[in-house]
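A reminder from the course coordinator: this example appears on the midterm review sheet, so study it carefully.

Given structure:
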């Protein structure tokens, strides 16, 4: 390097060191739920998988009083209608029993009552005088959005099931930038013909390693359920999110749930999951035309009078 070039390089270095601090910009990154000095937690795949197992196995049953904001419509169609001030009660017991009772705003009459026991469900709609039964499997959504409701959808969102490593592959992603700080587990299934399919993604907040989101996909990669969890707090010494947002974009409905009261592992009994068809209601078996309303039971004939 020539003396002239060396002198120029030295001059540039001196000028750089003497630049005023106003030309240097520092940004403090403050993430939601954290503070400036809070460090992100470092975890590995096994730690996250075990966290899901612990959360799921800690709860055997619960009964919860919640405030709901149901919404019909979709983002894709640019129209969403919300129904506020719905008080509801959610009952759950392992492995797959769930019942949800919703009350109408203000008057608090029963708006709906639905129960699921694994593969099938029942839904009572008193205001429409209808009683719907069918399979939890929803192959094709119907234009009548109320028929797309399934208690199983709520169960999948409320109780995040562990990943079965015997049948699934798991990839771990560190999704951290200026606005986000998440670990994401990608649950991958392999089809019989060898094709890989994304089944779920489970998100953990790196500020506290709490579950933050769960997305469930169909075989074509479409989102079936998008559930978000926040405001974790202890209920009977068990951590559970107070605020839950559930979106079902293909079925064009969603619901925001805020827990008011929750009792965990207080032995929810079998009778809490019994839902009979109300007298006079119309039975509808999904996939079949509605049946005639059930007639109320005929009164018993009067007993013959004894002759004296």
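Designed residues:
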């Amino acid at each position: 390097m020539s003396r002239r070039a060396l002198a120029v390089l030295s001059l540039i270095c001196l000028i750089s060191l003497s630049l005023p601090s106003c030309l240097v910009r520092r940004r403090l990154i403050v993430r939601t739920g954290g503070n400036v000095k809070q460090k992100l937690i470092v975890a590995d795949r096994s730690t996250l998988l075990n966290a899901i197992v612990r959360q799921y196995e800690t709860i055997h049953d619960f009964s919860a009083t919640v405030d709901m904001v149901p919404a019909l419509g979709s983002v894709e169609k640019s129209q969403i209608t919300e129904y506020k001030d719905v008080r509801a009660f959610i009952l759950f017991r392992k492995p797959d029993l769930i019942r949800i009772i919703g009350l109408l705003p203000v008057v608090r009459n029963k708006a709906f009552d639905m129960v699921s026991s694994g593969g099938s469900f029942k839904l009572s709609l008193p205001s429409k005088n209808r009683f719907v039964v069918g399979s939890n499997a929803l192959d094709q959504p119907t234009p009548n959005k109320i028929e797309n409701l399934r208690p199983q959808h709520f169960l999948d969102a409320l109780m995040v099931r562990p990943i079965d490593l015997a049948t699934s592959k798991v990839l771990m992603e560190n999704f951290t930038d200026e606005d986000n700080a998440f670990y994401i587990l990608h649950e991958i299934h392999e089809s019989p013909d060898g094709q890989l399919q994304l089944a779920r993604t489970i998100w953990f907040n790196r500020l506290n390693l709490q579950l933050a989101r769960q997305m469930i996909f169909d075989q074509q990669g479409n989102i079936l359920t998008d559930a978000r969890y926040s405001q974790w707090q202890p209920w009977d010494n068990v951590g559970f999110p107070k605020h839950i947002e559930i979106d079902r974009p293909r079925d064009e409905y969603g619901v925001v749930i805020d827990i008011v009261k929750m009792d965990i592992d207080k032995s929810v009994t079998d009778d809490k999951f019994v839902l009979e068809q109300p007298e006079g209601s119309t039975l509808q078996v999904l996939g079949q035309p509605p049946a005639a309303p059930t007639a109320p039971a005929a009164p018993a004939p009067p007993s013959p009078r004894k002759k004296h």
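The two ends are 136 Å apart (CA to CA). Residues 141 and 251 are 6 Å apart (CA to CA).
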